[in-house]
Amino acid sequence: MGTIGHSLCFEGKKPVTIKQTTYIGGELLTTAVPIFNTEGEIELIVTTAHEQNYKALYNPEDENQSESKNTHLHEDNIITNNEEMKALIKFCQKVAKSDTTILIQGESGTGKSVLASYIDKMSQRKNGPFLALNCAAIPEELLESELFGYAQGAFTGANKGGKIGLLEAANHGTIFLDEIGEISLKIQAKLLQVIQERKFLPVGGRELKAVDIRIIAATNQDLSQMVVNKQFREDLYYRLNVIDLKLPPLRDRKEDIIPLIYYLLNKLNLKYQTSHIIAQNALDVLQEYDWPGNVRQLENVMERLVITSDGMIQLKDLPDIIIKNTKPVIKRTYPSSLDAALELLERDMVAASYKKHKSSRKVAADLDISQSKASKLIRKYCASLEDIPSS
Hints:
The protein is 41% helix and 15% strand. It has helices at 2-12, 83-95, 112-122, 140-148, 166-169, 185-197, 223-228, 234-240, 254-272, 280-288, 294-308, 320-324, 338-357, 360-367, 371-381; strands at residues 16-21, 27-36, 42-53, 102-105, 130-134, 174-178, 199-200, 209-210, 214-219, 243-246, 277-278, 312-313.
């Protein structure tokens, strides 16, 4: 319920029910019930929450999708509270309208395929095919025929009449080439021709085929260094790198971990017809973990927890690798006096906001207070920080 609900409960010494909005847009009906000791003083408060509805935090086509109004969640939702990610999404909305080639760079598991699909759904080609190929998952000797197809009699065992490749199948749409750094120099040369001329030659073919496609590529490798090492064609690198998008790792998006956990928890509860919730101490540890496998690792961990735990996901349910590689979470202890506790919370919120924004105007917007009040609180609590704004 948070500080507001607990404060009202303390002040009135009676149960309090309020409606809240969660990290990812859901509505909770939350009730705080005071428990009294023998002297008539509040000893503890028991809080319960009932979910009213649930929706994705960010879906650009909500207004056009009736399904977004119910409890079904879409795979292409982008859940974020991170400013860098918000700027990236806004930039994607701009570049999606053109047909220019895009290169998405980021660590494994950061969501490159999700971003590529999002761009396609925002583009003029959204009604055409969207085909994805993981270039690292197919042996080199098969990759060429998968991409470009082959002509009749191209090789022993070939289908009679030949076979169209993914490039041709994606005509009038978008093809997403994941792990682009894994393709051979030979295939790189043929792909360069596709980008430059929108034409290609099937394996064993004699006539060029024309295609109308958009190419989105992705990699977790440093292509510029691969160019230096003669492992990747320089001309192809610059053709792919017209628009360069960099996805930050999850460890640099700490504010997204909890919203993603609740998003995944709701999604998995729907999938497995369960009603799991998660304990605060488990949530604290998951938020502090560095997630080297990024969002993909978080997805896998949450699915494991929903399958293997009882109704409440607790600290003991977390995998050992997470427990062993997470620093102990030190929780703030508040004084017994309500006024002192509220002042301490106020100081923490103001200091954290000012440390992040460095501006009384932005602090005011962040904390939903007036700028004059923000300036006053900054002077009161942030005297040790530099550049204190004038009132």
